[in-house]
């Protein structure tokens, strides 16, 4: 199985959340998927991990209703 990696810009497009807000979520939400670091200025996230995180967040909304 091939692992697709996304950068912060693609992550922003996937979630429809501004990159600045994403960085805040990354600092404050322990459930947010950890990035894979390839160097001090190069990080990527697994597409599947982000999809699972989004699904968990949407189920949180449904559970609260």
Q: What characterizes the major β-sheet?
A: 3 strands, antiparallel
Q: How far is it from the N-terminal to the C-terminal residue, by CA?
A: 37 Å
Count of DSSP H/I helices: 3
- Quickly count the domains: 1
Low-confidence stretches: none
- Mean pLDDT over all positions: 89
Give the amount of beta strand, in percent.
15-25%
Physical arrangement of strands within the biggest beta sheet: 1-3-2
Following the backbone from N to C, one meets helices and strands in this order, namely EHHEEH
Structural class: alpha+beta
Classify the helix fraction into a percent range: 55-70%
CA-based gyration radius: 12 Å
The overall strand count is 3
């Amino acid at each position: 199985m091939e692992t697709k990696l996304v950068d912060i810009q693609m992550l922003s497009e996937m979630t429809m959340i501004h990159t600045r807000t994403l960085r805040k979520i990354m600092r404050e939400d322990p459930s947010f998927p950890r990035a894979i670091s390839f160097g001090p200025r190069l990080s990527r996230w697994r597409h599947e991990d982000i999809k699972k995180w989004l699904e968990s967040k949407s189920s949180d909304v449904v559970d609260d209703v």
